[in-house]
Amino acid sequence: MKKKIPENFIFGASVSSYQTEGDNFYSDWYDWEISNINISETCGMACDSWNKFNEDIQLLKELGLKYYRLSIEWSRISPTPGKINTSALNHYEKILTTLKENDINIFLTLQHHTLPDWLDHGWTNPNIEKYFEQYVSVIAKNFHYLVDAWMPINEPGVNCTFGYFFNEFPPGQKSSLGYIHASRHQARCHYAAYNKLKEINPDIPVGFVKQLIIFRTLKKTIINNFLLSYYDYVFNKIYLNIFRKGNLPFSIRTIPDIENSIDFWGLNYYTHKWVSSKFEGNQTFNFDPSVEITQTGWEVHPEGLLEACRVLWNIKKVPIYITENGIATDNENQRKKFIYEHLKSALAAIEENIDVRGYFYWSLMDNFEWCMGYKPKFGLASIEKNTLSRIPKESGYYLGRIAKNKELFFYE
Fold first, then answer.
1. Where is 230: in which H helix or E strand?
2. Residue 127 belongs to domain with CATH number
């Protein structure tokens, strides 16, 4: 059965600079890979998108996707404090200009999990707001005429949770106090960036990108209900409350008008998670063994996308773009089914009068997936090992046909 998609609904693919460009030597993640004995696979050349960006653009065109969400690597622009690398700036301008010359619209992320290695203590650095605003100002002044939408920070909850709880992202500190300080600095940085971007060009929308996880209890008990509320607060609500109440994370303090520093939601959705007092150690958020599991061990739950749209819409009624949604698998029928089922949920949200305006699949191509390395295959294209050539997959063409015809049909 086919389902009509609104004509103004956009389709695209997402990537991040560190995961695709390769050789980001001045990033905290580069240092983290070298020093962390728990990381078995380093990023290295990644997909070499720094040099092969034209191939990425041709891939988008071949698949029929007219929107691209990519990021800029802060550490390339500013490899040392206060210094601007004009060569890197010019190179990014070339990438963005080439996208525009090929009629591809740009959703630009300014910080996607990585920070410059000179920024001591990362998000807890007391001067990070000043440094981030300076960086944003440079990017906005140089590129605003090329950008269709801004996203200052990608998934702040992930940055903090994995950097200060689970020791899987730098700075690798298990510190509740560090988590609190980092999350507050992220809120302030988003607000500063929003104001700076609007000052330079008020016509370009600025979004807040949140990976939203729907938590569920395996069994309703007092302890499990408490755990559910705790994880939902720590991972979701401390950031969502910025735009509902103007609260800084973990605080009753407000910043005047911070709740209005959002023009659209960027929703990153992959899975939902279970909580239970019976889980121990690495069993936390374990899943129902009877359902479909991906290469990353995540449960496939497309209904959660509709629920996530409802959550964001009830917080702030601004447009929603699904800025990341994807599956790690080598099975193309599984990937096409995943896309189909999640787009069904997006259309169900629209039928509820939730203003969902677009879908970006993660990711355009198989790439470096942080502490999981290159094993998870999320891409709409694979990367040939020796030449790093982009090889489109069936799912990429499938999504392209949906985008072209504005019609959702069951995968073939």
1. helix 222-232
2. 3.20.20.80
